[in-house]
From TrEMBL:
Key words, A-Z: Carboxypeptidase, Cell shape, Cell wall biogenesis/degradation, Hydrolase, Peptidoglycan synthesis, Protease, Signal
Catalytic residues as annotated in Swiss-Prot or TrEMBL: S20 (acyl-ester intermediate), K23 (proton acceptor), S87
Stated name of the protein: D-alanyl-D-alanine carboxypeptidase
Annotated organism of origin: Heyndrickxia ginsengihumi
Residue intervals of the Peptidase S11 D-alanyl-D-alanine carboxypeptidase A N-terminal domain: 14-218
Length: 242
């Protein structure tokens, strides 16, 4: 996609698990309901005992998490940063409950938005992308990536290489391609053997500076690190092809 215009696809178009690319939709829904202006932090959320229990359970499962403590206060922006940079699965659940009262209602809204955006081959089963039933195609993920990038706060957050929190300290963005070849985001997502990435970069096409958005799904790796690395390489190669 170049400056919002779709240019085509290559490879299998069968839906595959999105992994953490689902968090693009999660962030989009939150920002649509509770918009943030540039420099605005938004309302506060106080971490509950249930949030900590979910964190502890996901640590046991080996999920991607951001540590939280009972009574800790986080702003909407901080929750979005924890959702999108280190890809906190526990934060996805926390922000979903904050925004819509409970996870099922939030997931229902995810699917409603997907339908509205014409994402006809997408199903969301959870706000984090942990479930393999949360699946989509590259074309559909291009659609949500494009609309999410229309929010200035979203663009700013996904372009951050790191962020500092009072409790956990400094946490890094999982997208190590940031800053290379004009790359300014957007989101990585990987399960054990599947690596996905949505990238945005400013490139020069026909002597004009344009925003290129690309999505690569289903890159194989022998483990979670291998699949993430495979997705990062494939994403960078895609951007460099422009």
């Amino acid at each position: 996609m170049i400056d919002g215009q779709y240019y085509g696809q290559y490879g299998n178009s069968k839906p595959v698990p999105t992994a953490s690319l689902a968090k693009m939709m999660t962030a989009f829904i939150v920002l649509k309901k509770y918009p943030l202006s540039k420099g605005e932090d938004g309302p506060f959320y106080t971490v509950t005992q249930q949030d900590v229990a979910i964190y502890n359970e996901e640590v046991k499962q080996g999920d991607s998490v951001v540590k939280v403590e009972v009574g800790e206060t986080l702003t909407e922006r901080q929750m979005l940063e924890a959702l999108l940079l280190p890809s906190g699965d526990n934060v996805a659940i926390m922000i979903a409950k904050w925004a819509y009262g409970n996870v099922p209602q939030f997931v229902n809204q995810m699917n409603t938005e997907a339908k509205r955006l014409g994402m006809d081959h997408t199903n969301y089963a959870d706000p984090a992308g942990v479930s393999e039933l949360t699946e989509s195609t590259a074309v559909d993920q291009l659609k949500i990536a494009s609309v999410a990038m229309s929010f200035s706060v979203f663009r700013e957050i996904v372009n951050l290489q790191k962020v500092t929190f009072p409790i956990v300290g400094t946490i890094q963005n999982t997208n190590s391609d940031l800053g290379q070849d004009g790359i300014i985001g957007i989101k990585t997502g990987n399960l054990v053997h599947i690596g996905n990435i949505a990238l945005a970069a400013y490139r020069s096409v026909n002597h004009k500076r344009v925003l290129v958005i690309g999505v690569v799904l289903g890159q194989y790796g022998q483990n979670v690190y291998g699949s993430l690395n495979a997705a990062l390489i494939a994403g960078k190669n895609l951007i460099e092809s422009f």
